[in-house]
Amino acid sequence: MSLLNLLFPRRCVSCGKIGRYFCSNCFKKIKYIDRSFCPVCRRYSFDGSVHAACLSPWSLNGLTVMAHYKGPVKQAIKMIKYRYVSHLAEELSGLFLEKYPSFLNKLDILVPVPLHHQREKERGFNQSLIIARCLGKNLNISVRDDLLKRKRHTRPQFGLKINDRKTNIRDAFRSYHSEVISGKKIGLVDDVATTFSTLRECAQELKKSGARSVWAFVIAHGN
């Protein structure tokens, strides 16, 4: 055991038991999503692909979500965002890897959903970037956090109505290095998504820069 773990032992995010971020009992309470759906119409899709009727030139091509945003997973993501426990992002990405679909290996690049530079400076890290790096390291996929930037500071999406979320995030991102993006199959990585407005805006920017396809990978879905 390292000195850091000795001085600051890991505790279960749900019950507080010392040892792991998810103890064996609370681990069983994680509600995995086992029914894939189209991110546009929310109806069933065998592997999360966007239905042909829902697909547009700038839309996501598909979505993979690990779990519902409740219980231990919700508590873990809140601890990452508001208590700045960055190691938890690594733990969550490990859980995701246990569930990842085979086509994740076929991606060319992983791109994290960016934070505004001001918010990232306040937090000290971008949890989506940490998750993307963990996935990329394990799957030997390049991670680029310079291809997509948040160009304006938006209000937190939490608590906003659906239409307000869309307005809040509209035109908030900008893509860079189109020579890298063009023709590539990109995995867009985020920690939590509710209405998928942010993911849609990011996908649109990447598609405008020539991305062949954009598939979103999210740890949790819900309010």
TrEMBL record:
One of the Pfam families matching this protein, by short name: DZR_2
Lineage: superkingdom: Bacteria
InterPro entries: ComF/GntX_DNA_util-trans, DZR_2, PRTase-like, PRTase_dom
Limits of the Double zinc ribbon domain: 3-54
SUPFAM superfamilies per UniProt: PRTase-like (SSF53271)
Family per similarity comment: Belongs to the ComF/GntX family.
Protein name: Double zinc ribbon domain-containing protein
